[in-house]
């Protein structure tokens, strides 16, 4: 096993705990005592020190000096995996700015605007889904009928990400506009009338450059801008408007994921049942929700069996989206908590189950996967099926 260099370990130790917990767990924070510490809104016993590295979870009586300690003690990773998880095989900078912790007794006049990532297109203008189809089908083992259904409904799509830039909005023709994260005097910014998504009605003014302008920069030999393809999953609010989006890079080679800034955690990724159903399966990620749907098809030998039940992805372990769903769908009485089969997932599931029981819900089930998560289980099941098929052919 290769030795981890000290600078790599030091980089991992310096990970911003607030940013990590917001992007990967879906938590949000408010500062107290003049930003000397940050308290988690979803789990008020979880506190991060003002240096944004040390942390302590009082209800679990566990703490640490940095993000490595969190991954080891809470998620159950070994030291090496924790370091590599934090630094990645290649460093990537998210174009979605991290949400700032809310300061108590201070009104925030300009909340972060929620802007959807740009839809990827082929040069001829057609929408491009090729990368996410390859990633979800070949890399994650999810069947095409599930992928195509969710693409058709707009719940998943192939997004575009540029390192060093962030999206500002869309014009009336649906063209995306960007700004650079750093100061570049030569950039020809123009004042634009934009909206947060191609279908949004509200408009605002911002100085930005078009995606065509950015693509022209990419053609220069000395550019340091790179274009990546993302799998974007979306969630809608009670009015049917997209108000939440999670993303991950369409590659199994390294990790790069998070939530779009300004996302409403109450609007989780929801696969609704066809017809009325009183059961919901609850997951941490949309990949796991899709994987469970696929396993359901395999179990019942029916490619449409997955459409019979509701499946909700929380975007982490916070229960905000579940509580909102139960308000919107009061007919739901059976709740299956299918969080990850690790320390963090099991602890969160038990906390959510306790909360639901105090609210009067009776039929609450904890359904952990046989592997670490439901995607790992799907890949394991498909591997066994393929091996059996090969044996039968011999």
From TrEMBL:
Q: Among the record's GO biological process terms, what is one?
A: DNA replication
GO MF annotation: an example: DNA binding
Classification via Pfam families: Toprim_2 (PF13155)
Q: What is this protein called?
A: DUF3991 domain-containing protein
State the organism named in the record: [Eubacterium] siraeum V10Sc8a
